C-alpha cells in the first residue's frame, strides 16, 4: 500500500500542542464567564438577531465538516471497500469531535444552557430543529460507540470490544441514515425563512444542497486531517487512498454546482448573478474558490499525486463550505445588524483549539491510526471485522 510515513517522536509536547492547550483552556474559561453573565453582556446579539458566530460557524460549519465520518464509515462497512480502513478511525474521531463541539456550542449559545436536555421530553415535532437536535444527539452516541474500540484495545477490554465489533455494521447504517437526515434538515431550517435569506442562497432544495456540500467538505476534511496528522504528528500518510477521495470530490461538487445554478435559473433569480453589489461578489467568490477551482485542480492527476497540492485544494473545499454556511446564516441573512464581540471570537477559537488538542492527545495515546492488525483484517475479513 502506497504511503508516506515518518517515525513517531518523543512523548514530550511541542510548542504547537501547548498553544492548543492554552487556547482550549482560555476558551473554556470564557464559556464559564458567558454562562454566569448571560448573552447580552458577552455577545453582540440583539432581539432581532437570534444567533451569531457560535451557531453559524461552530454549529452549521462544524456539523458539515464532520460529514467525512459517515461517508468513510459507509464506504468501509456498507460498500465493503476495506482498503479505506486505515483512514477510518481518525476520520470517525474527527467526526465525533466536530459533533461534540457543535453540541457544546449550542449549550454556550442557549439563554438557559442548563435546559439543553429539555428537548428529550418537550417535543416540538413541527420544528426542524427538533429533528436536528435528536439526530445529532443520537448520532453523537453512535460515533462514540464506533470510536470505543480504540479505548477497549488500549486497555485490553476484550468482552466489550467483541460486542462492539458484532454490532458495528448496524451502527454504521444507522449513523448514515441519521447523518443524511440532520445534514439536510439544517437546510430545511432556512427553507422556512425565504424573507430572510438572500435569493442567491435561498432555495427550496436547500436540504439537498446542504447534504451534498457537506459530503464534499467532509471528504475534503479527511484529506486535511490526514495531511495535518502526517506533518504535525508524524503519522502515516495514505497518499493513494487520499488521491482516490480527491478524485471523487469534483463529481460531488459538480452535482452541487449544477443543481445550484439550475435552481437559480428555474426560480427566475439568475439576474442576481450579475448585480453590482457585495452579495453578488460574495457569491462568485464562494463559487469560484470553493467549487470551480477545486473541481479543476482535483481533476488533474498531477495534483492528486502530490500531498501538499491535495491538502491546499482540500482547504479550498473546506473554505467554500464555511463561506457558504456563513453567507446563508449570517452575512446574507437579514435579521438586524450584528458584529461578534471579542469574547465570541475567542470562544470560537477555543472550540477549534479544543478539537485539535483532543485529536492530538487521542492520536498520541490511543490506537487511532492504523496498526499491524489492520492489514490482517483488510486482507482476511474472516479474522475479524474492522472495528
Q: What do you see in this structure?
A:
- This protein is an all-alpha fold.
- It has a single domain, classed as Formate dehydrogenase/DMSO reductase domain (Formate dehydrogenase/DMSO reductase fold, Up-down Bundle), CATH 1.20.1630.10.
- The protein is built from 16 helices and no strands.
- α10 packs across α14.
- The longest helix is centred in the middle third of the chain and has 29 residues.
- The chain starts with 14 loop residues before the first helix and ends in an 8-residue tail after the last helix.
- The C terminus is likely disordered.
The CATH topology label is Formate dehydrogenase/DMSO reductase fold
Number of strands: 0
C-alpha geometry: globular
Q: Using the coordinates above, name the CATH class.
A: Mainly Alpha
Query: Quaternary arrangement of the chains shown?
Result: single chain
Portion in beta strands:
under 5%
Distance between the ends: 20 Å
Gross CATH architecture: Up-down Bundle
CATH superfamily: Formate dehydrogenase/DMSO reductase domain
Mean pLDDT: 88
Q: Mind summarizing the main beta sheet?
A: none
Topology:
Elements: H1 15-37, H2 39-42, H3 53-65, H4 68-78, H5 88-109, H6 128-147, H7 149-154, H8 158-166, H9 168-191, H10 206-233, H11 239-267, H12 278-298, H13 301-304, H14 307-331, H15 342-365, H16 372-379
Task: Give a quick set of tags describing it.
mainly alpha, Formate dehydrogenase/DMSO reductase fold, disordered C terminus, 387 residues
Amino acid at each position: 500500500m502506497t504511503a508516506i510515513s515518518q517515525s513517531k517522536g518523543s512523548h514530550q509536547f511541542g510548542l504547537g500542542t501547548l498553544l492548543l492547550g492554552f487556547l482550549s483552556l482560555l476558551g473554556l474559561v470564557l464559556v464559564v464567564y458567558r454562562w454566569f453573565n448571560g448573552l447580552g453582556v458577552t455577545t453582540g446579539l440583539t432581539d432581532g438577531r437570534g444567533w451569531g458566530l457560535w451557531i453559524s460557524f461552530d454549529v452549521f460549519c462544524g456539523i458539515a465538516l464532520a460529514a467525512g465520518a459517515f461517508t468513510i464509515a459507509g464506504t468501509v462497512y456498507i460498500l465493503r471497500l476495506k482498503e479505506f480502513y486505515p483512514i477510518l478511525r481518525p476520520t470517525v474521531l474527527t467526526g465525533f469531535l466536530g459533533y461534540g463541539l457543535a453540541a457544546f456550542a449550542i449549550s454556550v449559545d442557549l439563554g438557559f444552557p442548563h435546559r439543553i436536555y429539555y428537548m428529550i421530553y418537550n417535543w416540538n415535532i413541527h420544528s426542524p430543529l427538533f429533528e436536528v437536535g435528536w439526530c445529532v444527539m443520537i448520532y453523537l452516541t453512535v460515533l462514540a460507540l464506533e470510536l470505543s474500540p480504540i479505548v477497549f484495545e488500549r486497555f485490553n477490554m476484550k468482552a466489550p470490544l467483541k460486542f462492539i465489533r458484532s454490532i458495528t455494521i448496524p451502527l454504521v447504517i444507522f449513523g448514515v441514515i441519521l447523518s443524511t437526515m440532520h445534514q439536510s434538515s439544517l437546510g430545511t431550517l432556512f427553507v422556512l425563512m425565504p424573507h430572510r435569506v438572500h435569493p442567491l442562497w435561498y432555495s427550496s432544495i436547500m436540504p439537498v444542497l446542504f447534504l451534498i456540500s457537506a459530503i464534499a467538505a467532509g471528504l475534503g476534511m479527511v484529506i486535511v486531517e490526514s495531511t495535518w496528522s502526517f506533518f504535525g504528528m508524524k503519522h502515516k500518510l495514505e497518499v493513494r487512498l487520499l488521491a482516490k477521495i480527491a478524485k471523487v470530490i469534483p463529481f460531488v461538487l459538480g452535482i452541487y454546482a449544477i443543481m445550484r445554478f439550475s435552481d437559480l435559473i428555474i426560480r427566475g433569480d439568475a439576474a442576481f448573478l450579475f448585480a453590482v453589489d457585495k452579495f453578488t461578489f460574495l457569491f462568485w467568490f464562494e463559487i469560484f474558490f470553493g467549487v470551480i477551482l477545486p473541481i479543476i485542480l482535483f481533476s488533474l492527476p498531477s495534483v492528486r499525486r502530490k500531498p501538499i497540492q491535495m491538502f491546499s485544494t482540500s482547504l479550498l473545499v473546506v473554505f467554500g463550505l464555511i463561506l457558504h454556511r456563513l453567507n446563508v446564516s449570517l452575512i446574507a441573512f437579514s435579521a438586524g445588524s450584528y458584529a461578534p464581540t471579542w469574547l465570541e471570537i475567542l470562544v470560537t477559537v477555543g472550540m477549534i483549539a479544543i478539537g485539535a488538542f483532543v485529536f492530538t492527545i487521542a492520536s498520541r495515546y490511543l490506537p487511532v491510526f492504523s496498526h499491524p492488525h489492520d492489514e490482517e483484517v483488510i486482507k482476511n475479513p474472516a479474522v475479524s471485522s474492522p472495528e
